[in-house]
Amino acid sequence: MNDHALYLIPVLLGETTVSKVIPPYNIGVVSRLRYFIVEDVRSARRFLKKCNPQIDIDALTFFELNKHTDKKEIASYLTPMKKGESIGVISEAGCPAIADPGADVVAIAQQKGYKVVPLVGPSSLLMAIMASGFNGQSFAFHGYLPINAGERAIKLKQYENRAYSEDQTQLFIETPYRNQKLAEDILQHCKPQTQLCIAINISCDDEYIVTRNIRTWKGKLPDMHKKPTVFLIYKGY
Amino acid sequence: MNDHALYLIPVLLGETTVSKVIPPYNIGVVSRLRYFIVEDVRSARRFLKKCNPQIDIDALTFFELNKHTDKKEIASYLTPMKKGESIGVISEAGCPAIADPGADVVAIAQQKGYKVVPLVGPSSLLMAIMASGFNGQSFAFHGYLPINAGERAIKLKQYENRAYSEDQTQLFIETPYRNQKLAEDILQHCKPQTQLCIAINISCDDEYIVTRNIRTWKGKLPDMHKKPTVFLIYKGY
Q1: Which domains are assigned to chain B?
Q2: Residue B6 to residues A209, B106, B110: CA-CA distances in angstroms?
Q3: Are the beta carbons of B137 and A99 separated by less than 8 Å?
Q4: Which ipTM value was assigned to this complex?
């Protein structure tokens, strides 16, 4: 590494091997870093060991960044960069700063004028769009839907409308133990001809990515309880 | 490969090495495939040779899928799958079925009930979101903006409004030789406090991903002429 930078380091999505989803270049980068900002220290250590069993984990410094972290504290995590050190950012699953709190520290790094370098790795959102067959020239990710039944129904209809009026693929996710409920809500509130792609355990051995219309899904939903799942809806015909 | 499937195979984004952005697993997959649906035959052959110089390119069958391809012809490209053969999909740059015509053949494969398997690789859109510091819990990609000046101004303001009203990161791209013009249009039409991330040549040696507000960018735009660039806007403060 010639320049010091904030490296955004994707990790595995569930139980799979490093060589399946991580480019060799990333192993070199993580092996040279001494500072990490991580969503969960335990899982970050496990990932680093998988990348390179030679890494001396105890010599590394970890700063924890998750929803419990005080926003004021985050800027201090970047102090090593002032001294010319690089830092890695690692989230719980997939790509940091996508659907996790990592974007806060990236925003501060950009404000301070530090170099930010995203590395390649698995993104369940992007891979779900690719495999859905839906529009990849226009798409929107909305994170989590509201839990309240009334608000959720309104949001679902609003996103469905956008799929038709803007020809835009709509993506959202749910806490894994509530996936089955969300799938049923989608079947209840969306039009029979609307297309729904259910993408479960992406990049893992039991990966399941299937697109059907709402009418066809009824009574035939797969088991997605506690499994990481991406939901995509798109206009039908 | 136990199952036959439609494999979605990402390629390099410009001049970089395979090991920097492609997981080792992908090399095994492309080395075993005999059929490919590609956006451009020449660049697909070059990529396959880079992945594995041992591949006998002349023994492979290529079907070309780009904006000139007759939609009716696309379904016939999947004929080898009926006989239990797997097929790879390769676009000009980055991830197939994202911002390219590949989604059409994926949609047909899903309709026919074929297994679709997305592989990991570089996505300029996703990597730009990661490194922008903008909201990664809500984002929308809009493809190309209209060329007509009036329509373009309307769209830019509409997307900027959504960045504020929905707290949503807005992404778009342009034909590389018109990048400079688009950047100037953004500076002209967006609010001074709105944030703009310009992400040029992602994953290449001269990668440049910088976030500033519109006010700060004025008079200081980088050279992006003919360089693949992603533009992202987000609410300022």
Answers
A1: 6-118 (3.40.1010.10), 124-234 (3.30.950.10)
A2: 12, 8, 10
A3: yes
A4: 0.96
